[in-house]
Design a protein that fits this description.
Distance between the termini: 24 Å
Strand content: 25-35%
CATH class: Alpha Beta
Largest sheet: 7 strands, mixed
Oligomer: single chain
Helix content: 25-40%
CATH architecture: 3-Layer(aba) Sandwich
Number of strands: 7
Shape: globular
Radius of gyration: 14 Å
Mean pLDDT: 92
C-alpha cells in the first residue's frame, strides 16, 4: 500500500533518516528536520510503500534538492524526485518501481508536466522507467546523472 508520509509521522521519518544516513551520508538531523518541518517552496510530498504497516520504500517530490546549490544551471528546471530509497532487504522486488509510478501519478494530479532527478547509484533503474539523461555532473565526489521525464 502506498500512502503519504505526514510531517508528524515521527516513527517513519526516523526510519527514513536512518536509511539516508546509511545510503547517502545525509545527516539524520537534516532529513528529520526536512520531513517534519515542511517548508513552503521545499518538499511537496513524501510517499511510502508499506507492507503490513512496515515501510519498505520511500520517495517524494520537492522544489529543491542539494544538487541545485552546486549546479545553478538546473535551478529553474522544475520539481525534483527526491529522497527515493528502498530498504536494502527489499530491493529488486518492484517496490521502487511501484512507488515511482505513484510519485509520477500524484505529480500529474498536481498539474506537473515534467520532473527531474539526479542519481549516482541507480541510473539504469530510472532509464527502465522512461527517464531521459540530460547531463552528467560532479556532485559530492560522484559522477551524477541528471535525468528528466515528461509526464503524459
Amino acid at each position: 500500500m502506498i500512502k503519504e508520509i505526514g510531517h508528524r509521522d515521527i516513527e517513519n521519518i526516523s526510519k527514513i533518516a536512518d536509511w539516508y544516513w546509511q545510503e547517502f551520508s545525509i545527516p539524520v538531523e537534516k532529513t528529520t528536520r526536512r520531513l517534519s518541518n515542511l517548508q513552503p517552496g521545499d518538499l511537496i510530498y513524501q510517499l511510502g510503500f508499506f507492507s503490513d504497516a512496515r515501510l519498505l520504500t520511500t520517495g517524494g517530490l520537492s522544489h529543491h534538492v542539494g544538487l541545485l546549490n552546486d549546479h545553478a544551471q538546473f535551478k529553474n528546471k522544475g520539481s525534483w524526485v527526491t529522497l527515493l530509497c528502498t530498504d536494502p532487504e527489499h530491493r529488486g522486488k518492484g517496490y521502487g518501481k511501484e512507488l515511482m509510478m505513484a510519485i509520477e501519478k500524484k505529480a500529474k494530479t498536481k498539474s506537473f508536466q515534467q520532473l527531474f532527478l539526479h542519481t549516482y547509484t541507480a541510473e539504469s533503474f530510472y532509464l527502465k522507467q522512461g527517464w531521459q539523461p540530460i547531463d552528467m555532473v560532479g556532485y559530492k565526489g560522484h559522477q551524477t546523472s541528471v535525468l528528466t521525464k515528461t509526464l503524459q
